[in-house]
Specification:
The complex is a heterodimer of chains A (382) and B (85).
Chain A: H1 8-25, H2 29-35, H3 40-48, H4 67-80, H5 82-101, H6 104-116, E1 121-124, E2 140-144, E3 147-157, E4 165-172, E5 175-182, E6 188-192, E7 205-215, E8 219-220, H7 226-262, E9 264-265, E10 268-269, H8 274-302, H9 308-334, H10 336-339, H11 344-355, H12 362-377
Parallel strand pairs in A: 1-4
Antiparallel strand pairs in A: 2-3, 3-7, 4-5, 5-8, 6-7, 9-10
Helix pairs in contact in A: 1-4, 4-5, 4-7, 4-8, 5-6, 5-7, 7-8, 7-9, 7-11, 8-9, 9-11, 9-12
Chain B: H1 5-16, H2 36-50, H3 67-82
Helix pairs in contact in B: 1-2, 1-3
The chains are: A alpha+beta (382), B mainly alpha (85).
InterPro entries (chain B): ACP-like_sf, PP-bd_ACP
Domain Carrier (chain B): 1-78
Organism (chain B): Amycolatopsis samaneae
Chain lengths: 382, 85
């Protein structure tokens, strides 16, 4: 069901991604959610498909996927399992940032594994006191000879339980800086975080850095460039989350159409009720519009257009709020069964709420998008 | 659009913030209108307009704080490209 035709190459890619999700991911996603982990075998299958290194160029061992196609991939994975999509999101952010601004030594050391999926990456920015406001990051990195020594704690780290390498943000003398840190560094300790509201299989962890010594080659960009690295990586993460939200929307629509077309109450199928049709039509509109916004953001990224940053904010804001709305309606349409533990729409509902918070809350997005409106209204670019 | 790097950079900034006045040597971040989001837009603008990637050693705020700093960054990188480095 698509009102907007997809280019032939994109359609072929989507068919391939969909086949993988429908056979290896979606049928098991409720079990992943209940077990609060993605089995290693599934992570290996993702590696076999080249999805971990999707955005890395072939010269670095990656798949060399363009951003529009990456959006389709993360939409399809998100349709099946938001937790797996979350793992792909943070891995992609770490790998992409390292590829862009890691030292030559660091790229040679870490990129081959990140491209193949033998090494999993995660993104360590959030702290107990630093969420939307990254100026409040308290983790420190102190220069000591040829090394830096990191101390601090990071919270809500997606993939923290299984990651092999972290992209870590810490304060140095010259401001916020970004470092790549091996998870098996003796100064790193990970504590699993369980029973979160949503994306329960994303293997969240709290990550403690205690006298964690890393070589200077671990620094991305110059000292003090961490805010720029974070802004760029979060833009990519936001794009991935937006795409994943389109997947949640599609999953809600698919489940709701199937359920209301087959369930009879009061002598008529649910689909015959006008109020049901209103919810279905809102889902159809939401998924088509969100998909178009994500595609637009991806096209701007592929064209290296600076406007992609604003386009991505808009796409993520719209897609995440529409996903929450669709998931709420999907549970409503399924009635009591939709509230049951283990029902997919129950999971979509919990996962959708998380999407309105991560990679910039809806409120932060509203402030940013409104600021852009005032800038453009005063004669700037549109 | 101006043919020189300095003019193109200035045009990009004034296009985004048309009501703001600043000199080529002014720190646009301490003037208060530019944000970290805009810093990344500057990185993308420079890369797209002048055809090179901002590498590890050039990713620092000092290179994007003023029109002068960005023009110098562009000159250095274009010189390196033409020298085959």
């Amino acid at each position: 069901m698509s009102l907007l035709a997809e280019p032939a190459v994109g359609a072929r890619s989507r068919a391939s991604f969909r086949e993988f999700v429908d056979t290896a991911v979606a049928p098991y996603a409720d079990r992943f959610d209940r077990d609060q982990k993605i089995p290693a075998e599934v992570l290996r299958q993702v590696a076999g498909r080249g999805y971990w290194g999707a955005v890395l160029p072939a010269t670095d061992g990656g798949s060399g996927m363009d951003m529009v196609t990456l959006g389709v991939l993360h939409e399809e994975i998100g349709r099946g399992c938001s937790s797996l999509r979350s793992l792909l999101t943070v891995h992609t952010m770490a790998a992409w940032a390292l590829r862009r601004w890691g030292t030559t030594e660091a790229r040679e050391h870490w990129l081959p594994g990140l491209a193949s999926g033998d090494t999993l990456g995660a993104f360590c920015l959030t702290e107990p006191a630093a969420g939307s406001d990254i100026s409040l990051v308290a983790t420190t990195a102190v220069r000591d000879g040829d090394d830096y020594v990191l101390d601090g704690v990071k919270q809500w780290i997606t993939g923290g339980q299984v990651a092999d390498v972290f992209l870590v943000f810490a304060k140095t003398e010259r401001g916020l800086s970004a470092f790549v840190v091996d998870a098996d560094n003796p100064g790193v300790r990970c504590t699993p975080v369980e029973n979160a509201l949503g994306t329960r299989a994303s293997m969240l962890a709290e990550v403690l850095f205690a006298e964690c010594r890393v070589p200077a080659r671990a620094l991305l960009g110059a000292e003090g460039a961490g805010r720029m690295v974070a802004t760029a990586a979060l833009d990519l993460g936001r794009y991935s989350v937006a795409a994943g939200c389109v997947g949640i929307l599609q999953a809600c629509l698919d489940a709701s159409v199937a359920h209301t077309a087959g369930r009879e109450q009061g002598g008529v199928l649910l689909r015959e009720h006008q109020l049901v049709r209103r919810m279905i039509s809102d889902m159809v509109t939401g998924v088509q519009a969100a998909r178009a916004l994500v595609r637009r953001a991806g096209e701007l990224k592929d064209g290296r257009d600076p406007e992609t940053l604003t386009a991505t904010w808009i796409a993520k804001y719209f897609a995440s709020t529409q996903a929450m709305r669709a998931a709420t309606d999907a549970v409503q349409l399924h009635g009591a069964s939709g509230c049951a533990d283990g029902h997919p729409v129950n999971r979509y509902f919990r996962d959708a709420k998380v999407m309105e918070i991560i990679e910039g809350s809806s409120q932060i997005q509203q402030l940013t998008i409104a600021e852009h409106a005032y800038e453009t209204a005063s004669g700037g670019h549109s | 659009m101006p043919s020189d790097a300095r003019g193109q950079i200035r045009d990009f900034i004034t296009g985004k913030f048309p009501g703001v006045e600043f000199a080529d040597g002014d720190d646009i971040f301490t003037l208060g209108f530019a944000t970290s989001l805009f810093a990344m837009q500057l990185v993308m603008f420079v890369e797209k307009t002048f055809g090179f990637e901002i590498g590890n050693e050039d990713l620092e705020m000092a290179n994007f704080r003023s029109v002068d700093a960005m023009a110098a960054l562009v000159d250095r990188n274009l010189d390196a490209v033409s020298a085959g480095r």
